[in-house]
Amino acid sequence: MKWSQQRLAYELLDELNENATEPEVVSFYESLKKALNRASTEPDLLRRYLDIISLHQDFEKANIIAPKYISTNQLSNDMESGMSQISKKIAKMII
C-alpha cells in the first residue's frame, strides 16, 4: 500500500476516533511509531490494527489478503466457528 507511518497513524486513528484533533493525531503517530518498534507490543493490538487496515479501500485495491475469516452465514455454526479458528491460527503463524 506504500503508506508512510504517518499515513498509517492517520488512517488508524480516523477509524478509532473520527473526531480526533491534530494534536491527538500527532500523539497517536508518536505512540504508533514506538509500538511498531517495540518487541513488547501486545499482539492483540497489532491484530486490531491489521483488522482496521484490512477493511480500508486501499487494502482491497492493493490486492492483499488478510487471514481473517468473514462469516457468510451460509455454513452451520460449527463450521463458522471452525473457519474462524483456522483463520486465527494462520494469522498467529504469520504475524
Written account of the structure:
- This protein has five helices and no strands.
- By secondary structure, it is mainly α.
- Helix 1 packs across helix 2.
- The two termini are 18 Å apart.
- The model has no long low-confidence stretch (mean pLDDT 88).
Structural class: mainly alpha
Which word captures the global form? elongated
| Helix fraction bin | 55-70%
Per DSSP, what share of the residues sits in E-state strands of 2 or more residues?
Answer: under 5%
Strand/helix succession: HHHHH
What average pLDDT do the residues reach? 88
* Main β sheet profile: none
Count of discrete alpha- or pi-helical segments spanning 4 or more residues: 5
Q: Give the end-to-end Cα distance, rounded to a whole number of Å.
A: 18 Å
Radius of gyration equals: 15 Å
Low-confidence stretches: none
Number of strand elements = 0
